Amino acid sequence: MSSPEEWLEPAVLGIFERRVYANNGPIVQALDRALADAADVPFGAAFCSGMIGMLLTAKAVFSHGEIIVPENLPSAMKEALIWGGFDLVLAEVDDDRALSSARIIPLISDQTTGLVAAHTAGDIDHALRLERLSSDRNLPLIFDGGDAIGRETDGRRIGGFGTATVFSFEADSVGYGADGGGVVTRREGLWKELRTMRNFHAAQTFAEVPLRMNGKMGEAAAAAILSFVRSRERTRT
Amino acid sequence: MNDRLKEWAIFGGEPTFREPRPFATLAAPSPSAVLATIDRASREPKRSMLIELEDRLAQFHGGNVHCIAVTNACIALVMLMRQAAQRKRGNVIIPAFSYSGLPHLTQWAGQVPKFSDVNEKTHALDSRSVYEQLDADTTSILAVCNVQDTGYIGELSEVSKATSVPIIFDSVNALGATFRQNPLGKNGFAEVFSLHATKMLNGFEGGYITTEDDDLAKTLRQDRSRIGAYVSELHCAMACLSLGGIESLIARNKEKIAAYKESLDGIRGLELLKYEDDLGERYNYSLAIVRITGDWPFTRDETVRLMRAEGAMCSAYYSPPLHRSSHCPKGMIVDTLPVAESLSTQFMYLPSGEHTSLVDIGAITSLLRALANEGDEIVERLRALA
């Protein structure tokens, strides 16, 4: 883990001063915004983990049925889809570890309701081809963005492709061993659903949703991840 | 203090409390101690605070018990229900008079929630109510230990043994309580506790599972790794410090409950929910819950509105009952559960926790006494407002 940094002390003192430790506090709200900005899309939402981000996004965008995923999708993302009640159809990946349209097409059946792909290979043509397949077949497409928030692929930021992109922040990469997740999207309706699904509170209800969960990030982890996202922004420019 | 001199805030007067008095505990160590602990942890190996927290929690729960810290208590419950179900799709028995998350959590575990009525005295599932709902598809029983009464842990554990249906205890609100004079944490299949700021042990956000079952603990640790459900080190540091202050927190809570009991005495129509500590069991006294009886001039919800306008953040307690709420799965038809339905109209939280002082409790009960005395007049004005 990294050594103390200048953001930590004011962040912790601010949390104690406000006495807002959790429950969609101001740092989480700032992180929601920062995620969207870093991905260059209008909407972002922070979650307590990447797995929960994927779980709630999948439940919001996919209908009950089969989801085609790359065989090398991280276990947390596969588990999220299993928790969501979906049947996984594993697709082989190419030598560059990416899922290609050619591998997906033979697996599409009338049970297929969506696609999940990873930004492993990272070239824009790959992402655009998957997007095209998604719209041609009318199958929502969620990208697993790993921790690549703020990164670019051929001049376009990761997070701007498909229906939504799920990011995972793990203790290894974020300062002070903070864990969490984030979802970014261009769809306002989905964003409202996600912000509703991540809690059970009447006051935090923005849309009609199928199911809710405690998917909230605490303020201290949010401060660490916010600093991480902003550092990505700085290194990019 | 008096409110005879002052207009009620709901009718445009100044609120009694400029800064609202919550019912959430919000106990916190000093921020400098938190910063120092985080600084120390940042120089130690990965997840060392998590390991330290789990060790200390295991001691807190009496030792010789596994403690697995996870993202939050809800995820903990889903992990356990999934384990109990062993891939089978069935149902989980839950109390209908409880926390709004429960029906959602059972569904995330791939199970149908089976709403059960509760015992009128303890507000908990008992063996009769469980047997009423139990069928061949039941994969687990999710019993909730309430703040003032841990319920029927012994009796329900027997039901679980006799039927081979695992029982999970949601002990979130009973953290610090005992069963047969031993700390909770070793009952049933497993127990779940919270590290949420509003509860007894403030770790910002988080939760943990306790179990005596070695194999289950091992499986849960594998699950946690597979799904990435760790608690952030910053949160573990905070929780460790909060754990150090828990005995004094319980003592302060107990004083507040005693203060409420004394000052509510003689107000017709209000009864403070009693902590069942007569037989030597411990409780955490974190919530002040009051029952509104027929002698009270207002409905429960009117009382909540009047008090909240004053900055005393009262709230309805477990209302509406889960099977009659928006949290019940769409289209599911549930027969009447008379006890849960009746209890859900009767109780409200009064402000409590670290940001409600003994002086505040005096002011809050003065407001309630004034409401009792001026009931008829206020009722008339209030109903004219609506």
Q: What attributes does this structure have?
A:
A: alpha/beta, seven-stranded mixed beta sheet, two-stranded antiparallel ribbon, 8 helices, B: 386 residues, alpha/beta, 13 helices, globular
Strand tally of chain A, please?
9
Uncertain spans of chain A? none
Report the principal-axis shape of chain B.
Answer: globular
Structural class of chain B: alpha/beta
Short description:
The complex is a heterodimer of chains A (237) and B (386). With 237 residues, chain A is of the alpha/beta class. Chain A has helices at residues 8-18, 26-39, 50-61, 75-83, 101-104, 124-136, 188-197, 219-236; strands spanning 43-47, 66-70, 87-91, 112-118, 141-146, 152-153, 156-157, 164-169, 180-185.
Describe this structure in words.
The complex is a heterodimer of chains A (237) and B (386). In chain A, helix 2 (26-39) runs parallel beside helix 8, helix 3 crosses helix 4 and helix 3 (50-61) packs across helix 7 (188-197). Chain A is globular, with a radius of gyration of 17 Å. With 237 residues, chain A is of the alpha/beta class. Chain A has helices at residues 8-18, 26-39, 50-61, 75-83, 101-104, 124-136, 188-197, 219-236; strands spanning 43-47, 66-70, 87-91, 112-118, 141-146, 152-153, 156-157, 164-169, 180-185. In chain A, 38% of the residues lie in helices and 19% in strands. By secondary structure, chain B is an alpha/beta fold. In chain B, strands 1-9-8-5-4-2-3 form a 7-stranded mixed sheet, with helices on both faces. Chain B has a 4-stranded antiparallel sheet with strand order 10-11-13-12, covered by helices on one side. A two-stranded antiparallel sheet of chain B has the order 6-7. Chain B starts with 30 loop residues before the first helix and ends with a helix. The interface between A and B is large, with 49 and 49 residues.
